[in-house]
């Protein structure tokens, strides 16, 4: 054992990284592994899946002679008719009716594909968290789950590339996301496993940087490469995940957990245990606040590609929208990086998390107001910048707040799995709600209003936390 590490008190658990070269190496590979998995989410959710859904639904709605219709021109015609500057002919009205059906269908289809995967994941992730707490192996408690998630999840990811229908796409993406989500939950649990309490905020902040930057790089990569090599870009994401996770596991080898003492497994207490952290007053309110903010953020971001084609004036073509969608996230990077690097450390020095979480939620709500009142391309970029700063503050401080209010430090895997479930629940409900709003209202304006209200309520929920500052 080096001077940079402290031996565990409990047999079969991890060493503590007190500082120095070992801690810096941990921060580097923790960040890189997070960046690899979030690159998949950025590329798939932001660009590749919306494009794949649109291609499938376009073929369903525009057939025969209509297959060559120009969606950009049709959306401009729709805006002109709505503004009263032109009157549609009978043929144009027929195409506008098809466009309305297509808009609603692709929104519902994308909501189905993304939400089904998240619902299944949120049921699996806490189970994996509990099982990883109890895993005995010569590679430690977390590494086997991370490697399984990387290898098997990447296989399902490649299969997504060949999905011919919405139903098959939903099934394969659900399998891919479910298995891949074994990685961030167990990776995140290595923080309370190996990092001393006074460095948790800093670690969460730097890890959050990898989380956010990975999503941006993944999205930009998809936007650039999709027009060149098509959906084959998915192969690159599969390789990236395996490389990132393998690097973390091999270069930061955990202590064997073969000597770990675990109680006899019983199914009833096993499932009842999921409710234990939610019985804790503070944990429950932090969890609810995360659901609400993630709910609002997901509702506003899921249909970015479609909003560029159908919400703003003038409308963009699919190629233009594909190129610009990841840039909506990229413009927020400077503010997000600064917020991520400062927020975690600031919360550690202040010894307070709540004010920063509340401020980030309020800023997120305000950002939604911009495109609600101004449906133009510059408004979407401004909203993204403000939301990026808000999320940069929120990610590390909210995670540190969860660690502060853990009801049982010895069951961190279980309880942080439940915390992750809050994010998943928000991500699942957001697109479903937004898809229904689009179908009912025939447009995307009301989506911004819903996202604003949900983010604001999330700030109020944090006020209910009593035993954390």
UniProtKB/TrEMBL annotation:
Tell me what topology the record assigns in the membrane: Multi-pass membrane protein
Keywords from UniProt, A to Z, are: Membrane, Transmembrane, Transmembrane helix
Q: In what residue span(s) does the Major facilitator superfamily (MFS) profile domain sit?
A: 286-469
Classification via PROSITE patterns: MFS (PS50850), SUGAR_TRANSPORT_1 (PS00216)
Q: Which Pfam families match?
A: MFS_1
Q: Do you know which SUPFAM superfamilies this protein is assigned to? A: MFS general substrate transporter
Stretches that traverse the bilayer: 27-49, 109-131, 143-160, 166-187, 208-228, 234-252, 287-312, 324-344, 356-374, 380-397, 418-440, 446-465
Recorded superkingdom: Bacteria
Q: Which Gene Ontology cellular component terms are annotated? A: plasma membrane
GO molecular function list: transmembrane transporter activity
Where, subcellularly, is it found? Cell membrane
Protein's name according to its UniProt entry: MFS family permease
Q: Which organism is it from?
A: Actinoplanes lobatus
**Upper taxonomic classification of the species?**
Bacteria, Bacillati, Actinomycetota, Actinomycetes, Micromonosporales
């Amino acid at each position: 054992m080096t001077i940079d590490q402290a031996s565990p008190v409990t047999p079969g658990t991890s060493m503590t990284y007190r500082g120095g070269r070992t801690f810096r190496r941990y921060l580097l590979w923790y960040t890189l592994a997070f960046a690899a998995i979030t690159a998949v989410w950025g590329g798939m959710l932001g660009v590749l899946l919306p494009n794949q859904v649109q291609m499938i639904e376009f073929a369903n709605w525009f057939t025969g002679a209509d297959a060559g219709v120009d969606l950009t021109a049709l959306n401009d015609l729709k805006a002109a008719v709505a503004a009263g500057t032109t009157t549609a002919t009978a043929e144009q009205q027929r195409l506008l009716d098809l466009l309305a059906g297509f808009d609603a269908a692709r929104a519902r289809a994308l909501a189905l594909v993304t939400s089904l995967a998240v619902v299944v994941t949120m049921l699996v992730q806490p189970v994996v968290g509990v099982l990883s707490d109890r895993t005995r192996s010569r590679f430690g408690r977390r590494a086997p789950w991370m490697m399984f998630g990387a290898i098997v999840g990447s296989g399902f990811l490649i299969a997504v590339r060949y999905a011919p229908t919405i139903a098959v796409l939903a099934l394969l993406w659900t399998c891919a996301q479910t298995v891949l989500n074994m990685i961030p939950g167990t990776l995140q649990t290595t923080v309370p496993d190996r990092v001393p309490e006074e460095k948790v905020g800093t670690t969460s902040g730097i890890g959050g940087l990898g989380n956010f930057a990975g999503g941006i790089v993944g999205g930009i990569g998809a936007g650039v490469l999709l027009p060149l090599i098509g959906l084959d870009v998915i192969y690159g994401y599969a390789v990236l995940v395996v490389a990132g996770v393998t690097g973390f596991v091999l270069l930061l080898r955990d202590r064997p957990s073969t000597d770990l003492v675990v109680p006899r497994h019983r199914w009833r207490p096993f499932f009842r245990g999921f409710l234990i952290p939610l019985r804790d007053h503070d944990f429950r309110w932090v969890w609810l606040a995360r659901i609400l903010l993630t709910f609002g953020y997901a509702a506003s971001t899921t249909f970015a590609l479609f909003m560029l084609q159908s919400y703003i004036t003038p409308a963009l073509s699919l190629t233009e929208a594909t190129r610009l969608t990841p840039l909506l996230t990229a413009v927020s990077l400077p503010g997000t990086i600064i917020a991520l690097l400062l927020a975690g450390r600031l919360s550690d020095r202040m010894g307070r998390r709540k004010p920063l979480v509340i401020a980030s939620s309020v800023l997120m709500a305000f950002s939604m107001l911009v495109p609600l009142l101004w449906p133009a391309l510059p408004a979407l970029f401004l909203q993204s910048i403000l939301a990026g700063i808000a999320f940069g503050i929120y990610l590390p401080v909210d995670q540190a707040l969860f660690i502060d209010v853990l009801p049982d430090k010895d069951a961190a895997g279980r309880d942080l799995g439940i915390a992750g479930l809050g994010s998943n629940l928000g991500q699942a409900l957001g697109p479903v709600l937004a898809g229904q709003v689009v179908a009912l209202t025939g447009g995307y304006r009301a989506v911004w209003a819903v996202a604003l209200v949900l983010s604001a309520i999330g700030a109020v929920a944090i006020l209910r936390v009593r035993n954390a500052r």
